[in-house]
């Protein structure tokens, strides 16, 4: 039974370290530069941060009821709380690591389980894909190197507009038709 609080504490420490590292390399808001970072929309890690903290709150609540002897709290309750918290933590880790760094004419793609990949903008092909959804229009840019798809960048990502403009200036993407 002692390993359950250790798991919860370890996940909290990992979350705090990831959160600190995520905020370390943010550029100042409104800064105009040829160096910027394209990130997952901030609502995704925020939502899963809430899931992480709710899982830990459930863990503490179940622990409280277990310690005072209220019947009905089982190991399954603790496992459920840790699984909810763990899923939230994994998505926060993934979303904090996924980014595209643009530095002048070089882009570096960072993904969770792959080696980072640096390419010059001249070496890539870009296409814009737009579709209508129930929520409105949705757009994304698909980057390819030769015939290999590298990554898709949704229009909801942070710093999407400067990236789109850089690709248009480099002649890799057509201007949007109005």
Shape: elongated
Q: What percent of the residues sit in helical stretches (DSSP H or I)?
A: 40-55%
Order of strands side by side in the largest beta sheet? 1-2-3-4
The count of β-strands is 7
The arrangement of helices and strands along the chain is: HEHHEEEEEEH
Average pLDDT over all residues: 84
Distance between the termini: 62 Å
Secondary structure category: alpha+beta
Radius of gyration: 21 Å
Q: Regions with pLDDT < 50 over 5+ consecutive residues?
A: none
The percent range for strand residues is 25-35%
Largest sheet: 4 strands, antiparallel
Helical run tally: 4
In short, what is this structure?
It contains 4 helices and 7 strands, in the order αβααββββββα. β2 and β3 form a beta hairpin. α1 runs parallel beside α3 and α2 packs antiparallel against α3.
Provide structural commentary.
- The chain has 178 residues and is α+β, with helices and mostly antiparallel strands.
- The chain is built from 4 helices and 7 strands; from the N terminus they run αβααββββββα.
- The strands form 2 sheets. It has a 4-stranded antiparallel beta sheet. A 3-stranded antiparallel beta sheet has the order 5-6-7, with helices on one face.
- Strand 5 (125-133) and strand 6 (136-145) form a beta hairpin.
- Helix 1 (3-24) packs parallel to helix 3 and helix 2 (43-67) packs antiparallel against helix 3 (75-97).
- The longest helix has 25 residues, at 43-67.
